[in-house]
Amino acid sequence: MTLARKIIHVDMDAFYASVEQRDDPSLAGLPLAVGGSRERGVVAAASYEARAFGVRSAMPSRTALRLCPGLHFVSPRFERYREVSAQIREVFLEHTPLVEPLSLDEAYLDVTENLQGLPSATAVARRIRAEILERTGLTASAGVSYNKFLAKLASDMRKPNGMFVITPEKGPAFVEALEVSRFHGVGPATAARMEALGIRTGRDLRERSLAFLQEHFGKAGAHFHAISRGEDHRPVVPDRPRKSSGSETTYARDLTTAAEVETGIAALAEEVWGWCEKTGIFGRTVTVKVKFADFRQVTRGRTSPMPITSREELAGISLELVRGVFPLPKAVRLLGVTTAGFDNVAEERSGQISMDFG
Predict the structure, then answer these.
(1) Active site residue 106
(2) Active-site choice (20, 106, 131, 248)
(3) Among the four 3, 64, 171, 298, which has the fewest Cβ within 10 Å?
(4) Which domains does the chain have, with CATH numbers?
């Protein structure tokens, strides 16, 4: 009999905004947005105080100010966020080598076997959250379950600064009772399509056949069929020596305007540049990925004759590439930026460095 895996999803609470409030105590408790306050600015992150007014990431700054006239804006400091993220990453690696970063502020951990000999995944998650708070002064939420899908769902249940556990015995029933709009991977557009088909809960989704779901949702149909049963066999994939470096984000709310997409791409390019700058490894190829609300995905790439060795060049190419998909045919649920095409020396070095958390 195969033992159930023990998976933790750790998600920092309002990470960028929380770092700013920690570093500048005068901002503590105030509604705060990280991003541009100019007429065409966009919110990159919002504190929980700002979220109470309806402010959210990827929202135009003028809309955020209309919702929250007392909103404070600060410019993003990605280098600072990477520094704090590295501290968090150190905590993870003290408990398991199987750490899969998703971004600067979240990761999956496989603690089926943990390095500290703690008796349960719940105990590991509790210890990790306490150590993050002690070392950084920041809070984290955690979800504990037997696969990635359920661990991700669980981490959203007690935010901020909470923990939720979904055991193998409770998994299928938990999924059945949940509205499909709460599922990671089901954005507003997909949820609306499901609503039109009479699919509102995990139970409704489970009652539909694989053939039905594939007919209406294409390749995503098999994914929906599995998760409606609480099934997800994807492994936690730790950092490995690689020939590319990238960052991608799935947004809680689909992006609907070109300005929102450009802001997202610029932030991802900045994260990728941080890795290049830290390691001294620079690629010649840049690729952007856009996944739409219907799960259709497009990529655009460009290869330069020489390595891309400046932040401005990487960001500029990334923005030019994503503009190639405008006007947007549908809302966007995921964006990604990757750089590749390292020379042989860089490839050898990439196997020796510690990858940034993002």
Answers:
(1) yes
(2) 106
(3) 3
(4) 16-78 (3.40.1170.60), 171-227 (1.10.150.20), 244-350 (3.30.1490.100)
